[in-house]
Design brief:
Helix content: 10-25%
Number of strands: 9
Distance between the termini: 67 Å
Order of helices and strands: HEEEEEEEEE
Number of helices: 1
Shape: elongated
Number of domains: 1
CATH topology: Porin
Largest sheet: 8 strands, antiparallel, barrel
Oligomer: single chain
CATH architecture: Beta Barrel
Length: about 220
């Protein structure tokens, strides 16, 4: 019994000294301070998109036109961080080379042409901060400068230019690489509303609805202020 008490007392005296010695041999790693995502940011992005223009008519079979092309644009936004959760809003605007041409009403020889000259969005973001990385989802209102043309075998071309409106949703990640710079990558899906044009000859007009949608993958760099 007396021996057990002596061992316990000796352990209590030796443990702090031993811990101090081990601390010198195995230094305790101090974690890097987490980045605070709160604030305003702006940047540049570039990417590639592919999608489909759907053409439908009451009396003719529906068809699709593959779309593809590059995008290059700017981004401006703001974040608010609460613990590990990040909320924000951002807007982006991009030049677009996304387009395509193909027979769109099977069996008629009619060609549909789609050109998207620019596109943008205003989106809300919500994400989870992990050390110096951010995983996020985003969604909101999408808009684009779009031109659609119908080229029937007989009759004149029918073209329409419109500010197309729709919605977008996507996911992405962002990583801080310096005190005020980050790299980001994301995927976004854009779906726009229907636009109607008439085609035909000799007064026999047919209303055709055109609706574009695209998938875009892009990389970007942001500066935080």
């Amino acid at each position: 019994m007396r021996f057990g008490v002596l061992v316990a007392a000796a352990s209590a005296l030796v443990a702090p000294v031993l811990a101090q010695d081990l601390r010198g041999v195995f230094p305790v790693r101090i974690a890097d301070p987490a980045f605070d995502w709160s604030g305003i940011y702006g940047g540049l992005h570039a990417g590639y998109g592919s999608g489909m223009l759907t053409a439908s008519s009451q009396h003719l079979a529906a068809g699709e036109v593959p779309l593809r092309g590059s995008v290059l644009g700017v981004t401006l936004g703001a974040n608010w961080q609460v613990k590990r959760y990040v909320f924000g809003v951002e807007g982006d605007m991009a030049w677009s080379g996304i387009g395509g041409m193909r027979e769109c009403l099977p069996g008629t020889g009619t060609l549909c042409v789609s050109d998207m000259g620019w596109l943008g969005a205003v989106r809300g973001r919500a994400g989870l901060a992990i050390d110096r990385s951010l995983l996020f989802v985003a969604g909101g209102v999408a808009f684009a400068g779009w031109r659609g043309t119908i080229r029937p075998v007989a009759g004149a071309d029918t073209s329409l230019e419109a500010h197309a409106w729709g919605w977008t949703i996507g996911v992405g990640s962002e990583v801080i690489i310096s005190d005020n710079m980050s790299l980001r990558g994301e995927y976004a899906f854009y779906r726009f509303g229907r636009h109607e044009a008439e085609m035909g000859a000799d007064g026999a007009n047919e209303a055709v609805e055109l609706r574009p949608q695209v998938h875009i993958g892009r990389l970007g760099v942001n500066w935080h202020f």
